[in-house]
Design a protein that fits this description.
253 residues; alpha/beta; 7-stranded mixed β-sheet; 10 helices; 18% strand
Length: 253
């Protein structure tokens, strides 16, 4: 692995080109409906499936698997680890934080633990199986020992946190990871905001998808802001790959 392979994004809009796409679009930390308690299962499941479709068709799964492979080059799926091993060191190859319906963790090879703060979401994801172990956990206070996972991954999650909490989240992920952290998230931009509107009005009629897509686009960070948050957390980028105006994956150590 090259020591600091950030060339993937520099020629495709880059840190500063991405910032230009967000000119006049300040970050707004507005709440999202998915974070509220008491959502009906059917409505929540429909929203999570919409997000899974976005991950699959919009390149999100590709970005995450590319970044995870920067750390784990040749792992084979060995099935879920028993619950008794949940807090044991070196039990997990990949930890996925903010797992949603589980489409991301099911794309990873090896022993994968997926967590979400919502027991309701964890229950839905676990029902889909796929050789992944699931648990409800707070991303800022993971019930895991230091260096107990190979790679810690989070997707579509960091923008839910204001900058100080985002820094704390990356520090917590680095604490439990032996090799590094993979961050995959939206990039704040006018094209991204337009895409969120199109998703909610042309593709999905789900209330959560329509509201939260726009809220997420406004809450998202630019690539330069993500790199600054990683720096504050004591992490350096080993590799960065971006889809300009939409999202980026960062392999951080």
């Amino acid at each position: 692995m090259r020591n600091s392979d950030t060339s993937d994004h520099m020629g495709r809009g880059g840190r500063w080109g991405g910032a230009i796409l967000a000119v006049g679009l300040p970050r707004r930390d507005e709440p999202e409906l998915i974070d509220a308690p008491g959502l009906a299962d059917a409505e929540l499941l429909e929203n999570l499936l919409d997000l899974s479709m976005v991950n699959r068709l919009g390149g999100g799964v590709w970005l995450s698997t590319w970044a995870v492979r920067r750390f784990v080059q040749s792992a084979q799926l060995t099935g879920a680890v028993p619950a008794a091993a949940f807090v044991q060191p070196a039990a997990w190859d990949v930890l996925d934080v903010g797992c949603g319906i589980g489409d991301m963790p099911r794309a990873f090879a090896g022993r994968v633990l997926a967590v979400d703060i919502s027991p309701q979401i964890v229950r839905m994801a676990a029902m889909r199986g796929g050789g992944v172990a699931y648990a409800a956990a707070d991303a800022l206070r993971l019930p895991l020992a230091d260096a107990s996972v190979g790679v810690a991954h989070c997707s579509f999650t960091l923008h839910h946190f204001a900058p100080p909490q985002a820094v704390a989240l990356l520090r917590e992920l680095r604490r439990v990871a032996r090799h590094g952290v993979v961050l995959n998230d939206l990039l704040r931009s006018w094209p991204g905001l337009a895409g969120a509107w199109l998703l909610g009005h042309l593709i999905s009629a789900n209330r959560l998808t329509r509201h939260d897509g726009l809220a997420s686009a406004r809450r998202a960070y630019t690539l330069a802001e993500l790199l600054a948050i990683a720096h504050q957390a004591g992490l350096r980028p080993l590799a960065v790959r971006a889809i300009p105006g939409y999202r980026a994956a960062l392999a951080l150590a």
